[in-house]
Amino acid sequence: MNGTNQSNVAIVDDDASVRQALARLLRTEGHNVQAFGSAQEFLQHPAIDDIGCLLLDVQLPDLNGLELQATLERLARAPAIVFISGYGDIPMTVRAMRAGAVDFLTKPCDADVLLNAVAQALQHDNKQRSQQRELTAERSRLASLTQREREVLHGIIAGMRNKQIAAELAICEKTVKVHRAHIMEKLGVRSVAELVRMTEHAVADTGNTVAKQTSVVPHPDPHTALLA
Amino acid sequence: MTSVLIPVLYGLAGVCVYGGVHHALIARRRPVDRTHLWFALMCGMIAAYVVAKAGAYQAGSAQALVEQRRWEIAFAILLFVAFPWFVREYVGQRSLWPPLGLSLIMSVVLLANLLLPYGVVFTSPPDLVQLTLPWGEQVTDLRVHQHGMWYNIGRLGMLLVFIYSLNASWRQHRRGETRRALSLAIAVAVFLVFFLFNQLVNQGIVDFIHTAEFGFLGLLFVMNQSLTRELHIVEKEMNDLRHQVLHADRVARISVLSTSLAHELSQPLTAVLSNAQAGLRFMQQGEPALDELRDILEDIVRDDERAISIIRGLRAMLRQKSTARERIVLAMAVAEALDLMHDEILRRGARYERDLQPNCHVFADKVQIEQVILNLVMNALDALDARPAGQRQLQISVASDGDGQARVAVRDSGMGLPAVPSERIFESFYSTKSQGLGMGLALCRSIVESHGGRIWADDNTDQGAIVQFRLPIASEEQA
User: Fold this and answer.
1) What is the mean pLDDT of chain B?
2) What is the maximal distance between C-alpha atoms in chain A?
């Protein structure tokens, strides 16, 4: 569709003929399709990161579709999921959608509906990816700050004046100004407002990621994690 | 000249023994209906009576003849002890007193017959007479000149039994069961005719041998006809009922599976739809590769056949009429049942392995065998519900036992058998489930046993239970 390597679609369905038929249909749309017979098989795939959309059956041996969704959720980057099931009862659908599925289709499913859902999922995934890229860029820019610059940045975000920062760090105000200019330049922002927004953004998302990885306890203070 | 009478008597005894055994076997099969039991007893008494009589004709001396006659008469009286009870069962009468009174009178007569020096018929040593039968055979018989009190009591008792029986027959006719009533009336009438003829012989009015045994035989014949005809009707009804119950069970099982079956059907339909739409899109996109199109069409055909086979299996399970027994591959029946349940097993979070030896042929009703598998696997799934999701294992195997028997086993890792003797779980209405009727395993046993097999259950050494059944392997000729 968009022809880039991001239209990688994976299918997980334990029924071989369904798998093959769905793969065939998706290929007519120009997608790059990989099919898997079980959740385990899919999880062993080395390049899950490259997959933009996962077309997932609910009823699977071993790990079922909803459990796979939960497992992927814990990974740093999960593909957008479109469920396709022969059961599709309401509680199951609600559970899947709450957990972030793009759509929940019922078998048998019309080609237009299916391809539409996959396109939406890919779009969703694309957006996530560009956000992710932006975030990564912001983070690397933040990471390029020196220790002293970070301390100054901390002060700016806390709403302190240059004089206060200088007093806090026991340096002269002029040096604070120089640091400030460096920070603005390194982070590619023009105003303090923009600086605060970007920092908040990068930090907030880190917090989420950390929470995901540890899955139970969020990091006590993401600000310090990144800024200390 | 050679005797005709003695072989005829032994022949009669043989017929009576045959009838007795036949009805005793029926009585064993149908413990509720005691008519056959009493009838079998009567057959035995008549056989003994006839044998004693043949002995009397062959007796060498007057003393021996009198002794044989005493036994003969004892069995005749015994017959009248039993007869009222038979009539009571036959007409389905509830009142206990008439047969009890009658058989008490006859029992007292019987006792007297055993204790009195010459039995109840003779008061003194009887005269021997030589009789020439119509076909020229010479026999020695007894003639009595004077009858004692006991003889008259006995005759009175017998007459009362006849009256009771005819009355019972009349009442049955009034209740609308004319056919049954008529059979009884005819039987009693035949009996009565020969009884009266005997009286004429005893009184010296007719110069002939005693022929009561032919009266007995008439009774046996008419009653046997009537009982057997009814048995056929009852057995047909039972058979119809059994098939209705089996059908109801299948419908219930399938309805439990309906969600899974809908899913099972949606799989090939999904594949067909997606394949067809993929094909159309290929064609819209310009020159389609013919190879690709052929692959698509082949896949569509294959998936359609799969859907058809599911529907065919369903239709067979839901059909009311029983299918014929034929030589089937046991593994195939088991596999087809498992195909119907595949999704249900997954849905319930269980994993299953199948190990089905394809070479076991049995002569069986395929639908019924599938029904057994359905029942056993669903029981196993229920037993697995109590286990955590990762530990729900099922194993289904078909193998030859090597002794002309095939064995099907359903093993689960569930909670094991209830703590009762394992045969009990196959009894009707035995259930450990709050919603169970307790018919599943009883029906399984009924099906397996009607195929000449056996079913039993054990606990596994590690975890869960195993239910197995054996069926005789069909020979090559049974086709």
Assistant:
1) 87
2) 73
* Residue A62 in contact with partner chain B when CB distance is under 8 A: yes
Query: Are the CB atoms for B307 and B270 separated by under 8 Å?
Result: no
Tell me which residue in B262, B299, B302 faces A86 most closely, judged by beta carbons: B262
Band the pLDDT of B298: cuts 50, 70, 90.
very high
- Nearest Cα neighbor of B394 from B417, B365, B414 is B414
Q: Is the pTM of this model over 0.80?
A: no
Q: A61 — contact with chain B (CB < 8 Å)? A: yes
Q: Which residues of A touch B354 (CB under 8 A)?
A: none
The yes-or-no verdict on residue A80 having pLDDT over 80 is yes
User: What is the DSSP pairing of strand A103-106 with strand B127-132?
Assistant: unpaired
Banded model confidence at residue B440, pLDDT cuts 50, 70, 90: confident
Pairs of CB atoms within 8 A across A/B: 84
- Please, what sign has the CA dihedral across residues B319, B320, B326, B328? positive
A17 contact B CB<8A:
yes
What are the chain B neighbours of A87 within 8 Å (beta carbons)?
A: 259, 263, 347
Sign of torsion over alpha carbons B236, B237, B242, B245: positive
The residues, ordered by sequence, that sit 6+ positions from B11 with a Cβ below 8 Å of its Cβ are: none
Alpha carbons B122 and B212: distance in angstroms, whole number = 18
Please tell me if residue A24 touches chain B, with a CB cutoff of 8 Å. Answer: yes
B288 Cα to chain A: minimum distance (Å): 11
Residue A98: name the closest of A125, A119, A116, A73 by CA: A73
pLDDT in tens, B61-101: 778 888 888 888 899 899 999 999 999 988 888 888 999 99
C-alpha–C-alpha distance, residues A194 and A202, integer Å = 12
Report the Cα A101 to chain-centroid distance in Å.
13
What is the SS3 assignment for B35-52?
A: HHHHHHHHHHHHHHHHHH
Contacts B285 to A, Cβ<8 Å: 28
Asked if pLDDT for residue B412 goes beyond 50, the answer is yes
Are A65 and A39 contacting, i.e. CB atoms less than 8 angstroms apart?
Answer: yes
What distance, in Å, lies between the first and last C-alpha atoms of chain B? 56
Q: For A108, which of B270, B306, B346 is closest by C-beta distance?
A: B270
Calculate what percentage of chain A has a pLDDT beyond 70.
85
